[in-house]
Amino acid sequence: MGVIWGVPYLFIKIAVEGMSPASVVFFRCLLAAMLLLPIAIARGQLRALLPHWKALLAFTAVEIAVPWFLLSSAEQRLSSSLAGLLIAGVPLVAAILGWMTGGEKLGSRRLLGLGVGLAGVAALVGLDLTADDTWALVQMAVVVVGYAVGPFILNRNLAGVPGLPVMAVSLGLSALVWAPAGSTQLPATMPGTDVVVSVIVLAVLCTAIALVAFTALIAEVGPVRAPVITYVNPAVAVVLGILILDEPFTAGIALGFALVLAGSVLATQRSGKQPPSALPDQQGVGQGVQPAPVASSE
């Protein structure tokens, strides 16, 4: 998951150079939904979602529909590597949410981690962003919060629901939301091959496959530690941005990445025995995407 979700920043950057953010999100969600919905329908799993429609709508909004558009829009101004590094703040927000909801305790080590992580974000913002990038930074902040809240909704409100139909319907709903803007903002001419390939990779690998795997991960390790995959995401995003897009490796990226990574590790470490609400949801694994045992990492 850490590698797969380190890739999107590169492909989003390429895609928004030839299509509008709304069009990128629309086609990304549409193609992924076309892959997952038939499977959910064939398994007869959609009916199980009806009692949870409010939680499903909330998850769709905070994890997919809103943040994917804002991320695509922000990358029209920010480099893919910087966007990937800012997303590394998700575990910090998740740790705070875990404490606020009573599922996690914030000891001295975790508080230190939050402080170090925030210092890393400040380094990124202070050294690599200008006043003209303020709106893009606000967009990224909303994305970070959404990515942290989404796993909590899955774990606490949709834990007994199979993961695949949740993701399939969420993607379908997001495609419907962005269909009007996405279809009317298409470029006058056919986008280049690199743009088309980027959208396909985003839909198949970074969406359909990734979201199903992420559901199983949340069920196995819980919503606080599932976002720890963002330890790897920034490194992948930075390497790809530098090697493929010739993006600069700045002082802000070097310092910010080290501090955010160190802070996230400290802020999400276990501190003794956790309360039951913070333990992995074993029932979610058994009823989720695949009948894998709890110890499985697949």
Description of the molecule:
By secondary structure, the chain is an all-alpha fold. The protein has one domain (4-186, 196-286). Helices cover 68% and strands 0% of the residues. It contains twelve helices and no strands. The chain has helices spanning 8-15, 21-42, 53-74, 80-87, 90-100, 108-128, 134-157, 163-184, 193-221, 233-245, 251-267, 282-287. Helix 1 crosses helix 4 and helix 8 (163-184) packs antiparallel against helix 9 (193-221).
List keywords for this structure.
298 residues; mainly alpha; disordered C terminus
Describe what is shown at a glance:
The protein is mostly helical and 298 residues long. The chain contains twelve helices and no strands.
**Helices and strands: which structural class?**
mainly alpha
Question: pLDDT average, as an integer?
Answer: 82
Helix content: 55-70%
Q: Which runs of at least 5 residues are low in confidence (pLDDT < 50)?
A: 274-298
> What's the end-to-end separation, in Å?
10 Å
Task: Tell me the domain tally.
Answer: 1
- Number of β-strand runs: 0
**Quaternary structure state of the chains depicted:** single chain
Task: Please state the CA-atom Rg, rounded to the nearest Å.
Answer: 19 Å
Would you list the SSEs in sequence order as H and E? HHHHHHHHHHHH
Question: Helical element count?
Answer: 12
Characterize the biggest β-sheet. Answer: none
Shape: globular
Portion in beta strands? under 5%
